[in-house]
Amino acid sequence: MSIVRNSLAVVAASTLLALTSACGGADKVATCTEATKAMTDYQTAAAAAGANFDNLNKATADFSAKLKELAGKADGDLQSALQKVGDSFAELKIDPSDPAAATKVTEFAKKASEGAQSFAAACA
């Protein structure tokens, strides 16, 4: 499952970069700040989960819920981007007994990356 964990680390880092890259306007700055904190909290919780995939799945679900909550406070492209990233994380559930887990993480990484790019564009 190290490929799964490594893939998650890369996705989390790239999403954090997109979340912090370029936010402008007072409302956008506040939302981006909250989203950045949520990502940092997620990374901390995911790292603390270690090999406990139940805890990792909970951290992922909590992060998704936070992004969707922030989407409800935003509008336009920012709202859409936060929802897209939140939806991507909502779909991720790691099951180490699933032989397709690595493939699912790869699909997730693509969706999360697209969402993060939308987020960065919305905050520009």
Question: How would you characterize the overall build of this protein?
Answer:
It is built from five helices and no strands. The chain has about 120 residues and is mainly α. The relative contact order is 0.19. The mean pLDDT is about 80.
Give me the secondary-structure category: mainly alpha
Number of helices: 5
Give a short account of the largest sheet. none
Rg over CA atoms: 14 Å
Strand content: under 5%
Distance between the termini: 36 Å
What letter string, H or E per element, gives the SSE order?
Answer: HHHHH
User: Helical amount among residues, as a percent range?
Assistant: over 70%
Number of strands: 0
Rounded average pLDDT? 78
Bulk shape: globular
Low-pLDDT residue spans: none
Describe the structure concisely for a colleague.
The chain has 124 residues and is mainly α. It has helices spanning 2-21, 26-49, 53-73, 76-90, 101-123.
Give structural attributes:
5 helices; mainly alpha; 124 residues; 0% strand
